Amino acid sequence: MKAEILKALRESSDYISGETLSKELGTSRVSIWKHIHSLEEDGYAVEASPRGYRLISSPDLLIPYEFPALERRIHYFREIGSTMDAARKLAEGGLEQGTIVVAESQSRGRGRLSKEWVSPQGGIYFTVILRPKISPAYAPRINLMASVAVATTIRRLFGLKAELKWPNDVLIEGKKVCGILAEMNAEVDAVNFINLGIGINANTSISQHEEKASSLKEQLGEEVSRREFFRSVLTELKEQQALLTKTDLLEEWKSLSATLNRDVRIVALGEEIVGQAIDIDSSGALIIKGKDGSLRTAIAGDCIHLT
Questions:
Q1: Structure confidence at residue 286 as a pLDDT band (50, 70, 90)
Q2: What global pTM score does this model have?
Q3: Do 68 and 51 fall within a single domain?
Q4: Distance CA 9, CA 24 (A)
Q5: Looking at the structure, do residues 105 and 248 belong to the same domain, yes or no?
Q6: CB–CB of 227/66 below 8 Å?
Q7: Which one, out of 68, 109, 163, 246, has a CA that is 20 to 30 A from the CA of 39?
């Protein structure tokens, strides 16, 4: 109901009466008043007068009713420990493909390799439950798919040159603006679910101590609409999922890569691989050519750009 009221208020160029709203939406004027009061509690500024109601301003929150087509799938929190932890419980409970857990901030945000993902107000932090009908061998491509979706959205909406750092970071001007974490529950020959976590520095202020990080706000010099960006990323993710088992996804990742054709050091499982990143294989693993000409493959790990 709040989504319908918001839509009516936004489409009206003037005041719209409670009577008109109640007739259009098939509910009582008292119900309309209660829902408008609830909107005001959420941060919407609604002017009320004898002529009716008029929307003055909206908060840039990722509230489910701002996304009517997805409202029933979104589990929204003003603050949470970790969207990944919440999504895991929901996935284990059988919730469907496309269920989303989103939060305005996280107190225990998680990154790869047990690292903390700092998650203050102003960012976009969410986890999507995926149940792809793929072999576990294709699961590493989830990170590639998500990073392509985020970078493509940044380029299209803001004209910024977003690039991809293997295996799952999105960079602008060499600085990280987005991190991605995928956790899989699978059997030998089938994926039960993959929880895809994405953290985006949207309107966050970056500390001077975070030299390798940036935000969309910092890059553009102004705040962005998190609602528009979130909606666009979700749409792009859905489109990219159709390419998950196709070579098109690999080619798109390569075209956006900031890692290929440069010297790198991969730190993983107690070992280091140093050489030139020359390609990715069909699973998304990075192929590195050593100084002696030998080829090695990194399935996972920290990637450090040396040049």
A1: very high
A2: 0.90
A3: no
A4: 12
A5: yes
A6: yes
A7: 109
pLDDT value at residue 114: 63
Backbone φ and ψ for 56, nearest 5 degrees, come out as -95, -45
Which tokens go with 236?
């792009």
Q: Cα(285)–Cα(301) distance, rounded to whole angstroms?
A: 10
Full domain range(s) for residue 85: 64-256
> Are residue 87 and residue 119 in the same domain, yes or no?
yes
How far is the C-alpha of 86 from the C-alpha of 99, rounded, in Å? 11
Q: Is a pLDDT exceeding 80 seen at residue 115? A: no
- Residue 307 pLDDT more than 90? no
Task: Provide the edge-to-edge strand list for the sheet that holds 302-305.
Answer: 295-298, 286-289, 271-280, 262-268, 302-305
Cα→Cα distances 132→180, 185, 242, 295, Å: 18, 11, 10, 31
Q: What is the mean pLDDT of the chain?
A: 93
> Could you give the CA distance from residue 186 to residue 193 in angstroms, rounded to a whole number?
7
Number of domains in the chain: 3
Maximum CA extent, the chain: 81
HEC-encoded secondary structure of the chain: CHHHHHHHHHHCCCCECHHHHHHHHCCCHHHHHHHHHHHHHCCCEEEEECCEEEEEECCCCCCHHHCCCCHHHEEEECCECCHHHHHHHHHHCCCCCCCEEEECCECCCECHHHCECCECCCCEEEEEEECCCCCHHHCCHHHHHHHHHHHHHHHHHHCCCEEEECCCEEEECCEEEEEEEEEEEECCCCEEEEEEEEEECCCCCCCCCCCCECCHHHHHCCCCCHHHHHHHHHHHHHHHHCCCCCHHHHHHHHHHECCCCEEEEEEECCEEEEEEEEEECCCCCEEEECCCCCEEEECCCEEEECC
Same domain, 87 and 71: yes
CA angle, 207 as apex, 206 and 212 as ends, to 5°? 70
